[in-house]
């Protein structure tokens, strides 16, 4: 069993003390970072590394998918469709060794990341209380 590094402990503390909007932003940031690393691995011919990073992004997408409230209306339904599309597109990227597929998903994730950053920044300013977070994890 590995001894947790200072960075691991920092991440755990950050996740435990963050509101839900910030957690979603952190997940998107991690997904973008992982896809950029997957592209680097693909260019270097490191197929194992590429696959590992893609799997981590798929884990993040599953986490985001499981957090959706189906009763939240069309926005939740649209996000669900995007998450499923990206998950499947990453399967193709992995099988086909396709940088284009990775770029497609990166464009979507970056757009969602920017929207969530804006939303998370507005929530505290507008005096809307942050929901209670009972459990969270982030795939770094």
Topology:
Layout: H1 6-16, H2 20-44, H3 47-67, H4 74-96, H5 99-125
Helix pairs in contact: 2-3, 2-5, 3-4, 4-5
Indicate the mean pLDDT. 84
Spatial separation of the terminal alpha carbons: 18 Å
Indicate how many domains the architecture comprises: 1
Number of helices: 5
Name of the top-level CATH class? Mainly Alpha
What features would you describe in this structure?
The protein has 5 helices and no strands. By secondary structure, the protein is mainly alpha-helical. It has a single domain, classed as Four Helix Bundle (Hemerythrin (Met), subunit A) (Up-down Bundle), CATH 1.20.120. Helix 4 packs antiparallel against helix 5. It is globular.
Would you kindly provide a brief summary of this structure?
The chain is an all-alpha fold and 140 residues long.
Question: Which terms summarize this structure?
Answer:
140 residues, mainly alpha, Four Helix Bundle (Hemerythrin (Met), subunit A), 5 helices, disordered C terminus
